[in-house]
C-alpha cells in the first residue's frame, strides 16, 4: 500500500520507516531540525482523518509528541513524523499538511508581473 503526501501521488509504505524517513525518501523537507529524535517538534504533519480512521494503522503517541502537540492538534490528526510509524506495509496513509509544504505559492512570481505589463 502507499503513503500519500499532499504534493505527491503516492509512495510505498514501509513499516520499518517512520513518516519522516518516508518524506526524506522523496526529498520532502518537512521541517525536522534535530534529525528525527523528537526534540525539536519541527516535523509536524497532519493526517487526513477521513482516510486514517483506524489508529491501529500507526504507532501510539509518544511522550515527545505529547510534549510538542496540543490536545487540539492531536485531535485534529497532527503527529510528529519522526515519532509516527506505520504498523504494517499493507496500508494507505494520507498526509494533508506539513510545515514546509511548498505545493501552493506563498508569494507571487516576480516574472509573472513582467508578462502583465502594459505595452503601450
Description of the structure:
With 120 residues, this protein is an alpha+beta fold. The chain is 20% helix and 15% strand. It is built from 4 helices and 5 strands; from the N terminus they run ββαβααββα. The chain has helices spanning 19-25, 63-68, 71-75, 110-115, and strands at residues 2-5, 11-12, 44-47, 78-80, 93-97. Strands 2-1-5-3-4 form a 5-stranded mixed sheet. A hairpin with a 5-residue loop joins β1 and β2 (11-12). The radius of gyration is 17 Å and the shape is globular. Residues 104-120 have low confidence and may be disordered.
Architecture blueprint of SSEs:
Elements: E1 2-5, E2 11-12, H1 19-25, E3 44-47, H2 63-68, H3 71-75, E4 78-80, E5 93-97, H4 110-115
Parallel strand pairs: 1-5
Antiparallel strand pairs: 1-2, 3-4, 3-5
Give the key terms.
single chain, 120 residues, alpha+beta, 4 helices, 20% helix
What's this, in brief?
The protein is of the alpha+beta class. It has helices spanning 19-25, 63-68, 71-75, 110-115; strands at residues 2-5, 11-12, 44-47, 78-80, 93-97. The chain has four helices and five strands.
